[in-house]
Protein 1
Amino acid sequence: MDRSTLSRRAFAAQAAALGAALAFGRASAHPAPAVLTERRDLFPQGVASGDPAPDSVILWTRRAPDGAASTHRLRVDVAADPGFSDIVARGDVAVTAATDWTCRFLAAGLSPAREYWYRFIDEAGNASRIGRTLTAPAEDDDRTVTFAFVSCQDVTQGAMNAYRRMLHEDAHRPRAEQLGFVLHLGDFIYELVWYPEERPNGMERGRRLRDIVRYPTGEKVTTFHIPANLEDYRTAYRGYLLDPDLQDARAQWPFVPVWDNHEFNWRSYQSQQIIDGAIRPAQALKVAASQAWYEFQPARVRKGGTGDVFEAPAVENRPLTDFDARGVGQEPNNLAAIKALQIQRAFRYGGNIDMILTDNRSFISPGGGYEGLPPIKFGAMPEEMLDILDQGRAYADGHPPATIRIGDLEFANSNADAPPEAYLGLEQMAWFKDRLRAARAPWKIWGHSFGTLTGRTDPQNLPEAFSDQWPAGAGYGVTTGAYRLEHAEIFDMVREEGITGLTIVAGDRHAFWAGYPSKALPPRDFDPVGVEFVTGSLSAQTLGEVQRLTLPKDRPLRALNIHDRPDGSMECSWNMTLMHGVRSSLTLKETGDPVQARAARNPELAPHLKFLDYAGHGYATVRASPDQLETEFVCIPVPLERAETGDGGPLVYRVVHRVSSWRPGEHPELRQEILEGDPGLAV
Ligand SMILES: [Fe+2]
């Protein structure tokens, strides 16, 4: 057997394990029709590629069915040039309704760090648009590598100007500096959809509603609609992928996707939905959401069976009763549903990056149904109270207090017997730690859909007149940040085993953050174990926008959320409240001067934050060389409508944070540079 036959066999096995057809070598496919006609209308969701390796990449398309056709035969051509004169791989496959007419190929036998072009051709010679993709550099190649990370694209309420901007900037860079891939950290779709004719003037909270997703079945919950079955989820993906800018992005770079919550249900855990405050077993729906994701995302993920078709396990909708030590329901239908598709994975990308991607939603614990808590006016939770409730029966090495005393409050610990809040689960945690230990590249990047950085403020420093807002002696108030047991387990391991280069990249928060993950914050030990960056949303609404539209002008302490300038314009002062403290935001209201406001800061509040913008949209890019990593935030204005210019419209700011490699025992140090525009109160 010659080498080519051997590699064909190895790649064929790899392709089968991924549920993909194989494109390898030039010979195999059905003969090319003499004349090709590009017919984008027959491939309405465009083309895509994903999960690049040094010798292979996954290719994807959807050939919409013609009338009563029960199948289409698709060939894929992969070429080393955009004119397709040098074809390097070919494959063919039948597509049917069983995959919603989508297909995936493993294009294999490719060379590392190379550009390739691909297109799909049906039995009649109708061709898709041409896609371009890139393979990963080899493991021993220490060239600087670059990727983008994004999240939260609601195409029904906004425009994909961020992708347009990313395409424009990349096209103007030398090849060596271009993006290698786009890491999509989830909320690729928003499963909750408002129908324009059902909302006043076709608007929802200041956003024009686009008629892009109509569920064939669906279910109406209050004012919006959610999917009820597989066909509904497929409908959402089909609609989303009609967006021209998203489609261009998928045709230009390989994507590396993970999901967040909206790919299944905005308020859910494992296979359970929470609708109107009530838990609803939804094992079948969880499987349907996973199937649709699998069909529309080219990724090296694990499902049951070896064919292209997703073999959905038969599950019944059952409540969860019996939980393991990290809150994963042991009910068999739940386990079958949450493992039907496993998206957690790890890969090396060139010499500088080890990427580890976790599934933060399928194993997440039921979450804070905290009962009997004392009422607190200020919208935050005293840090110590969160710490105790969040860790449940695992608090203090298994000795949680029966009664919680916070300042002058005292109440029963309703979580004393509950499992700790967690999202990785025991199995995934063990896998994650193994992968982190095994990572040899200087930068160990954890793709994490929602991020670990704590958001907190200091309501204990409010003026006397507001003493009714916060319990005396309650200390800091946390607005974001839980899962302390799992984070401590990981961060302790990083510290104890001298792991360096930990870089967390995240989405979900609809905000840009740069900072340092740490097990605890002052007055307890602040001990940064890595760096973390969270990207702003592509289009989904930010907290800053919502507060601007909804906070009453006469609301007491409005200044903590919004800075009203004399000219009537507004700025998101919540950034300042979380980075510098309540005194800074109140000083800003009095003086209108950010410099004086920052001078009034509480330096103990947020030593872990370097940048925070709860009002910015856009994307982020990472450049990793052997001894430095830099992350750039590219912020655009609220993308209400599609930009009319090819560059995606203006920028608000471009900020870069650089970090040099650090040695075991040292702390990383972020250096900030504002390259363009003005990030305002985000610094
Ligand atoms: Fe989101």
Protein 2
Amino acid sequence: MCGHFFFYQLGVSLNLKLNRAHVRDLAKQRIARLFALASQAVKSDTGQANRYVELALKISMRTRVRIPRELKRSVCRKCHAYLCPGITSRVRVRASRSPHVSVTCLNCGTVRRYLLERDS
Ligand SMILES: [Zn+2]
């Protein structure tokens, strides 16, 4: 399915207020597909990967479809770059104090930390 067709269908459905659930379902599929494309593209062209992510974010905002947490974690909060460990991000596990994973965006330098769940 080509992109133009998707947006055409999206626009018509929204205008006519038809079957919103179907539109959201299409948007979800499209977002998942864009992230899959980004994960492939980042290996050879990080700029292309970032464009896929920007498009996914746009679709998410327009259709109010949430991006799954695990996919959202692969996007830099600040510059919206696609984060791939070893290519566009640096991932470190810190055991000191509260154990966490730190992810550094190599594009803008933003660091995010995720606490690790600890089995008690
Ligand atoms: Zn960044």
